[in-house]
Amino acid sequence: MMGFRRMEKILITGTAGFIGFHLANRLISEGFEITGLDNINDYYDPELKFNRLKQAGIRKADQWNMGIRSEKSENYTFYRAELNDKDFIRHLFREENFDAVIHLAAQAGVRYSLTHPDAYIESNLSGFLSVLEACRAYPVKHLVYASSSSVYGLNEKMPFSVKDNVDHPVSLYAASKKANELMAHTYSHLFNIPVTGLRFFTVYGPWGRPDMALFIFTEKILKNEPIDVFNFGEMERDFTYIDDIVEGVVRVLMVPPEGNPDWKGEHPDPASSPAPYRLFNIGNNRPVKLMDFIHTIEKALGKKSKLNLLPIQPGDVAKTWADVSDLTEVTGYKPETDIEAGINAFVRWYVSL
Questions:
Q1: I need a surface site. Which of 125, 222, 323, 343 has the fewest CB within 10 A?
Q2: Active-site residue 241, yes or no?
Q3: How far is CA 276 from CA 1, 181, 201, 347, in A?
């Protein structure tokens, strides 16, 4: 397998976001030279994104396409930029000669896609195309990109496996992530780009997104406000702690795919290809009932919640559960942080704000 040396240059898109912030910090600490990129949109409060950057030593980024060097590490430079600014993206790739790209930037949110569909086409499809074209023009050793557990859609066979068919998404967000997987395979096949897609399962932890359940529930419980509990509480999620996600991404980064010589078109494996293309789930492999999740938050806060029980929302699924056997086989890694430890870490961070 092709390895990575210290100080190799990596582009991470979405570094003002939840996962990108943590991942950039991890790789900087290990001696890699990181270029971060984010447009800092207003899907949720941009101040949270600026505060993440501040933690990494990046002063407030008001100017576009201007590199800002971290005040905490000479190995981190941040650009506020749009992926759809194709001229700038190609210029950045040409000048920096990246060894690898980790593409995390995307328009997130299942429910938001019901009311703002154009944002998903512009960011998740057009933005990803810009990255693929840049990797085609200026080849990298490995392109790793974020997919999502939402691609499993109407699937009911548990746990969800990357070897399963995923042709029945139930939100435009999920459809855009499935499209990313198809686009990535096409570019890997045509241009021999080593590319790996990662299906993340309900990521949570400190510096998390305020549109996610843990952030919303914690805030409302502390304010004595009722929390909306969909599907009348009959939901399960494979909650995955942020450190486990980051560890999985780093492990995968180090093993670019080389193509599966045993792949057969008569019985195609959706998770691999004769091209250098792979898919992995990164999840905790232990689904948690929504009511147990809420009770764990209550325990961490020392305070009971008020529940507003509601039907399931359009675009939601009742249960997720990640089969991570392929990830473990290739990288030797399996996420393991239990929900109580993860929620306690989040609550400690939240109350310190």
A1: 222
A2: no
A3: 12, 13, 24, 41
Q: Which two tokens stand for residue 5?
A: 């040396």
Alpha-carbon gap, residue 341 to 67, rounded angstroms: 37
- Sign for the CA dihedral angle at 138, 139, 143, 147 comes to positive
**List of residues 6+ apart from 51 with CB closer than 8 A:** none
Q: What is the Cα–Cα distance from 37 to 99, expressed in whole angstroms?
A: 16
Provide the β-strand partners of residue 281: 199
Q: 212: helix, coil or strand?
A: coil
User: pLDDT tens, 184-216?
Assistant: 999 999 999 999 999 999 999 999 999 999 999
Q: Please pick, among 173, 187, 277, 350, the residue that the annotation labels catalytic.
A: 173
CB 184 within 8 Å of CB 161: no
Q: Is the pLDDT of residue 270 over 70?
A: yes
User: Could you tell me if 82 and 37 are in contact, meaning their C-beta atoms sit under 8 angstroms apart?
Assistant: no
* Helix, strand, coil percent content, the chain, rounded in steps of 5: 40, 15, 45
Token match 């995968």: residue? Answer: 252
110-137 confidence digits (pLDDT tens): 888 989 999 999 999 999 999 999 999 9
pLDDT at 335 over 70: yes
Residues 335 and 174: beta-carbon distance below 8 Å: no
- Identify the H or E element spanning 160: none
Residue with tokens 């507003």: 308
| Spatial contact of 49 and 16, defined as CB atoms under 8 Å apart | yes
**Which tokens in the block code for residue 255?**
């093993």
Indicate left, alpha or beta for 262 from its phi (over 0: left) and psi (-120 to 50: alpha): alpha
Closest CA to 78 of 35, 47, 133: 35
Indicate the residue type of 232: F
Three-class SS state of 197 = strand
Q: Which amino acid is at 72?
A: K
Q: Report how far residue 174's alpha carbon sits from residue 287's, in angstroms, rounded to the nearest whole number.
A: 20
